[in-house]
Hints:
The complex is a heterodimer. Chain A is mostly helical. Chain A contains 13 helices and 2 strands, in the order αββαααααααααααα. Chain A folds into 2 domains: 2-36; 71-294, MetI-like fold (Orthogonal Bundle). In chain A, helix 3 (71-103) runs antiparallel to helix 9. The model of chain A has no long low-confidence stretch (mean pLDDT 91). In chain B, helix 2 (93-103) crosses helix 3. The mean pLDDT of chain B is 93.
Amino acid sequence: MxxxxxxxxxxxxxxxxxxxxxxxxxxxxxLLVLNLWPFVQTLYTSFCEHLGFxxxxxxGLQNYINMFQNAEFWRATWNTIYFCIxxxxxxxxxxxxxxxxxNAKIKGKGFxxxxxxxxxxxxxxxxxxxxxxxxxxxxxxxxxxxxxHINWITDSKVVxxxxxxxxxxxxxxxxxxxxxxxxxxxSKSYYEAANIDGASxxxxxxxxxxPMVSPTLFVVMIMRLMSSVKVYDLIYMMVEDTNxxxxxxxxxxxxxxxxxxxxxxxxxxSAIVIWTVLLIGVVTIFQFIGQKKWVNYDV
Amino acid sequence: xxxITFKHVxxxxxxxxxxxxxxNLEIKDKEFVILVGPSxxxxxxxxxxxxxxEDITSGELYIGDRVVNDVAPKDRNIAMVFQxxxxxxxxxxxxxxxxxxxxAKVPKDEIDRRVHEAAKALDLxxxxxxKPKALSGGQRQRVALGRAMVRxxxxxxxxxxxxxxxxxxxxxxxxxxxxxxxxLQTTFVYVTHDQTEAMxxxxxxxxxxxxxxxxxxxxxxxYDRPCNLFVAGFIGSPQMNxxxxxxxxxxxxxTAQVCGNTIPLAPSMDKKALAAxxxxxxxxxxxxEDVEAVGSGERHxxxxxxxxxxxxxxxxNLHLDCQGNKLVVRAPSTYAGREGDVGALRLKTEKIHxxxxxxxxxxxx
Lengths: 299, 365
C-alpha cells in the first residue's frame, strides 16, 4: 500500500512538474530566441569576417587582435568606464537624496513625486533635443545663466560631463522611486527608538537608513552600472558623428554601432559587444563580492 | 525616578481628529500603571505623548516637576519597549542594547559593564553576538527590555509588549516584567488591550474609551466596583452578564424583576440611590462566578436553557439563554447539566451591580 501511495504521489508530482514547465515555457522560449540565440550568433560572428549579404568567413581571433591594437577601441573602453564613474556614484547619491526628500513630511509630496518621475515617461530623443538647446554654446540658456561661453557639446574636455549631467537627470526619477519603495519598507519604530536613544539625524541615516535601504541600493546600483556600460542612445543623440569631440565621448556601444552599421564590419562590431559583455560580467562579479561588506539582508 | 502628570492634555491630529480630548491623570513615582482599553481608545497615543513621539496639542505634561511638552524624547529620561520590539536587525544583541548608551557617549567599559549586567539579569549573555533574526520572540522581547534597562530611565514605557508572543510565553513574560518592576523600582506605564495583563500586572489600571478615562483605580476596585457598564464589561473574562431588570420596593427591601423572577437585592446596596429607580428599568450585572448553577430542586432565582457547555478542566463555562438574555455561568466540572437542559441558577445577591440604562453609570453595587 505504501508503495502504491508513493507511486501515486510521484505521478502527481510529475504532473505538477509538467505544468510548471508549460507555464514557464513562453518565457524560456522568448529568452532562448530573443536573447540566447542572438548572443550565440554574436559570439560566432565575432570570430568571422563579414563578406556582405549575410555571408561570413571564420577568421579566428583576428577581430579581437585588431580590436586590442586599435587606440579608438581603448579610448571607447575608457570613455565607457569614465561615464560610469561620473554617473553611477553621483546618480545614486542624488537619487537617494531625492528619495529621502520625497519620503519626508513635506507638502505636495504627490506633486513632487510626479515631477521627479516625469523624465522617465518622456521620449529620450525629445529630452536630449531639449538638453542640446540648453547646452547650446551660442544661444543656450545655461551659458546665459552662468555668463560663460563653454562649448558644452563640442569641447572634448567638457562633452563627457555634459552627457553625464543629462544621464543623471534622466535616471534620478526612476532610481528615486525604487529607493523610495525601499525607504518606505523601513519601519517607523526604528526611528522612534533611535529618537528615544538620542541618535542624531546623521547617526540615524548611517546606522538605520543606509543599512536598511542597502539591498535596494545594491539592486539600483547593479542596474545603473549595467545600463551605463551599455550607454549608446544618449551619446548618439547628444553628439553627432561629425562632432569633433565624438572620440572623447564615444562609448563602446557607440563604437559598435559605427563599426557594424556605418562601416559594415559586423565581425569587428560583434567582438566589441563580447568585450562589453565581459566588462559587465567582471564589474558585476566585483559588485557581488563587494556587497558582502555593505549590503545588509537581515530583517 | 519620576512621577507623570497630565493636565488638560489634548491630542488632535491634522484633519481635526481628536483622539484625546481632555486628559487629567497623575502617575506616581515607582508606580506600575496600566492603560487599558479597546483599539483606538487613545491609550497608545497617551503613551507616545509621554515618550515625546507625539506632539501635545494643548495642556501640560509633567515628568517630575518639569513640563516636557517641548522636550525632545532623548532628554525626557525615559525608555520605551515597542510592540514590534524595534530591534535594529543589522546589529547584534550587544549593539542593540548598547546603542542608546553609545549615543549618550558613555565610556566604553561602562557600556560593557551595563550591557553584561542587563544581559545577565535577562538571561541573554549567551546571545549577545547574535542578530535579532536568530532569536525567538521571547528572546527578542527580553533584548528590547534590556535595551530599555541599561539606560536607567526614570520612566519605563511599554506599548503592548506581549501581544506578539504566544499564550504560554505571554504568561511567563508577564511575571518577568512584574519582577523587573519590583527590582528596578521605577515608574512603569504599560499599554495593553488585554484585560488579563491589566489585572495581573498593574498597581493601578486606567480604563480608557474614546480618549476619555472611564475609571482609574486598583485592579480589585475596578473588578468589584466598576463605575459604568463599559468598565464592567471590559474587565473580567468571561465578561460580566447583563440583563434588564425592573426595581421594586417591598417594605424596606428592594427587589429586581428579571425574566419574570423576583430577585431580592442585598441590604448593603445604597438605598438612596435605589429609591430613585423604583419602577424603572435598569441593567443588572453579575459576573459569571457569582452565579451558581444548582439542582432544580434547590432554591434558585432563574432558570435558563444551557446552549453550550465549555469544559475548562477545573470548571465548566455554561452559556445559557434566559428568555433572550445570554448568560455565562462558571460551574464546577462536576456539574451534571448538559447542553439542551434547563439549568437552575442562584445569584449571589451581594455581588449584583446595577447600572442606569440611559447613562450606563453604576447605580449601586
